[in-house]
Amino acid sequence: MKLEVLKKDYYYHIYNRGINGTNIFENDANKLYFLKQLAKYLENKISIFGYCLMNNHFHLVIRLNTEEKEVTQAFSNLFNSYAKAFNKQTNRTGSLFEKHFKRINLKDENYLRRLIVYVHLNPRHHFDIDFTDFKFSSYQAFLSNRETKVERAEVLTLFGDLENFIFCHNQKNEFLNETYTFE
């Protein structure tokens, strides 16, 4: 698979999973550490429009704020630092993630909206978990007034308002158009 070239000011679906489908998160502390490292390495380099951390994979919906080379290096630093810490904690060696993180350029606003919903619904798709209560997705950040790293105002504007944001998430799969490939 040829990797999409990242471009400044473009939106992307970034995702990866554990090598051979193995877990990349064993517990909540791992997920919190991943988010901390994400902020450390990529703050101001990307804007986050959505995320979800599942046990064996993750999804990020982002926009690049700087040039590709800088962002790619920052992601590399994130994944390397996380893998080293995870391997040390779990007493394992070797690669943790599949070779390259996947990236899909989001061509239009409809795709962006549908992807944000898809990412937030991931817990329901994989484990039949109520996505509204899932701790490691950005969904709750949009409902809250607390400070957040996600682009709350921009995303809610993209959906029209908070009411429509919630409505679109509760439409089951009707909102997700089959013509889009998310993974």
From TrEMBL:
One of its GO terms (biological process) is DNA transposition. GO terms for molecular function: DNA binding; transposase activity. It holds the Pfam family Y1_Tnp. SMART domains: Y1_Tnp (SM01321). SUPFAM superfamilies: Transposase IS200-like (SSF143422). InterPro entries: Transposase_17, Transposase_17_sf. Signal peptide: none annotated. Residues 7-122 form the Transposase IS200-like domain. PANTHER family: TRANSPOSASE IS200-LIKE DOMAIN-CONTAINING PROTEIN, TRANSPOSASE, Y1_TNP DOMAIN-CONTAINING. This is REP element-mobilizing transposase RayT.
